[in-house]
């Protein structure tokens, strides 16, 4: 398997959703470098905002609608360390919309340098039964619309 190479932020689609994130002390190890697991928490917080942005509020989906969007798979490629106090830009792109899951590729850049790229596969479940369910129509439509608006990940 070949290792991915970092890409600059201008290689990502112009219309992609982007959010800044200031790296906090609690996200770092004693050396002031972002702890690897913290990247997943950072990505998740941006994904919540992303779902709100595309019109499927995360809190409503996972709250009153009782539709879970838990991770079925997660992986990361690390290119450079992030450090306490820096501001990074987090950009989620839809890589695939399936029957009961969707895959996002989340790029994290500091200025023009990609620090980490996370792949997150979220499966939808009925939170009452814990069983897998198909993607809700509004979520499928919103993800597909965003995916069409953006180029596929390089």
3D architecture notes:
The chain has one domain: Thiol Ester Dehydrase, Chain A, CATH 3.10.129. With 154 residues, it is of the alpha+beta class. It is built from 3 helices and 5 strands; from the N terminus they run βααββββα. The longest helix has 18 residues. A 5-stranded antiparallel β-sheet has the order 1-3-4-5-2. The mean pLDDT is 95.
Q: Tell me what the CATH architecture is.
A: Roll
Shape: globular
SS strand fraction: 25-35%
Order of helices and strands: EHHEEEEH
Number of strands: 5
Summarize this entry quickly.
With 154 residues, the protein is α+β, with helices and mostly antiparallel strands. It has helices at 36-53, 58-62, 137-149, and strands at residues 19-22, 67-78, 87-97, 101-110, 113-126.
């Amino acid at each position: 398997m070949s290792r991915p190479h970092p890409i600059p932020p201008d290689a990502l689609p112009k219309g992609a959703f982007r959010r800044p994130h200031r790296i906090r002390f609690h996200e770092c190890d004693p050396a002031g470098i972002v702890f690897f697991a913290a990247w997943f928490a950072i990505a998740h917080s941006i994904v919540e905002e992303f779902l709100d942005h595309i019109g499927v509020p995360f809190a409503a989906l996972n709250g009153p609608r009782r539709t879970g969007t838990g991770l079925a798979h997660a992986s990361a490629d690390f290119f450079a360390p992030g450090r306490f106090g820096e501001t990074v830009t987090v950009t989620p792109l839809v890589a695939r919309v399936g029957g009961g899951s969707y895959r996002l590729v989340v790029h994290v850049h500091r200025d023009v340098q990609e620090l980490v790229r996370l792949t997150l596969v979220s499966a939808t479940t009925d939170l009452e039964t814990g069983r897998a369910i198909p993607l809700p129509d509004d979520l499928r439509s919103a993800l597909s619309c965003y995916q069409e608006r953006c180029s596929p990940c390089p």
